[in-house]
C-alpha cells in the first residue's frame, strides 16, 4: 500500500508553492509525508515540481521517495502519472494533495482498509467528495491514460464505480487554496 503525495504545484492562488507553506512550525510537504508514513504507507512517494530544489533544501522528507515531475506546469494530472509510475508494484495507492492539512491518519486508515487491486474509493466530508483517494493497481493504467491538466483522476473516477467513505467525524478535508484558508474557522482556536 503506497502513499502518493502530490506536491508539485506552484500555488498560484496561494502566492507560493504549498509544499513550502508552514503550519504549526512544519512545512505542508513534511507534515503530509509524515502523515502517510504514520498511516503505514510503504513506499511514500512525494512528487515535486515548482521550486523543487528549494523544497528539497528546506524540507526533511525523511524516509520517502522524492520524484520530480518535469511537466508540473501542465497540472495535477502529470504529477499523478509521475507518482503512480514511481510507486512501483503495489496493490493500491492512497493519493493525498499537499494542501489538505486537516486529513488524519484515521481518515487514511478508513480508505486503506479497502486496499486491493480492484478498489476505487474516496473520502467524503458530510457527503462532499474530497481527499484522500484510493486507487487500486487494476486502475493505474486507466487513471494514467485519463489524467490531464488539473483534473487528476476526476474523469476516471466519474466514469467508474467509486466507494465513498465518510470521514467528517475524523478529519477535515478542506483544501488550502489561499492564505486566508489557514485562519481558524468558527469554534477553532
From TrEMBL:
<protein>
    <submittedName>
        <fullName>Nicotine blue oxidoreductase</fullName>
    </submittedName>
</protein>
<dbReference type="InterPro" id="IPR025877">
    <property type="entry name" value="MobA-like_NTP_Trfase"/>
</dbReference>
<dbReference type="InterPro" id="IPR029044">
    <property type="entry name" value="Nucleotide-diphossugar_trans"/>
</dbReference>
<feature type="domain" description="MobA-like NTP transferase">
    <location>
        <begin position="3"/>
        <end position="160"/>
    </location>
</feature>
<dbReference type="Pfam" id="PF12804">
    <property type="entry name" value="NTP_transf_3"/>
</dbReference>
Amino acid at each position: 500500500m503506497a502513499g502518493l503525495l502530490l506536491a508539485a504545484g506552484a500555488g498560484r492562488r496561494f502566492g507560493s508553492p504549498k509544499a513550502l507553506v508552514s503550519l504549526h512550525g512544519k512545512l505542508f510537504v513534511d507534515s503530509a509525508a509524515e502523515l502517510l508514513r504514520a498511516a503505514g504507507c510503504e513506499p511514500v512517494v512525494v512528487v515535486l515540481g515548482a521550486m523543487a530544489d528549494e523544497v528539497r533544501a528546506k524540507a526533511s522528507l525523511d524516509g520517502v521517495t522524492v520524484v520530480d515531475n518535469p511537466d508540473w506546469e501542465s497540472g495535477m494530472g502529470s504529477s499523478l502519472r509521475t507518482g503512480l509510475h514511481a510507486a512501483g508494484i503495489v496493490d493500491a495507492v492512497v493519493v493525498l494533495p499537499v494542501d489538505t492539512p486537516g486529513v488524519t491518519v484515521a481518515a487514511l486508515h478508513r480508505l486503506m482498509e479497502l486496499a486491493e487491486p480492484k478498489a476505487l474509493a474516496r473520502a467524503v466530508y458530510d457527503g462532499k467528495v474530497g481527499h484522500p483517494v484510493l486507487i487500486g493497481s487494476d486502475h493505474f493504467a486507466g487513471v494514467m491514460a485519463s489524467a490531464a491538466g488539473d483534473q487528476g483522476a476526476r474523469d476516471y473516477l466519474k466514469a467508474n464505480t467509486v466507494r465513498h467513505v465518510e470521514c467528517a467525524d475524523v478529519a477535515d478535508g478542506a483544501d488550502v487554496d489561499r492564505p486566508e484558508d489557514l485562519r481558524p474557522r468558527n469554534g477553532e482556536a
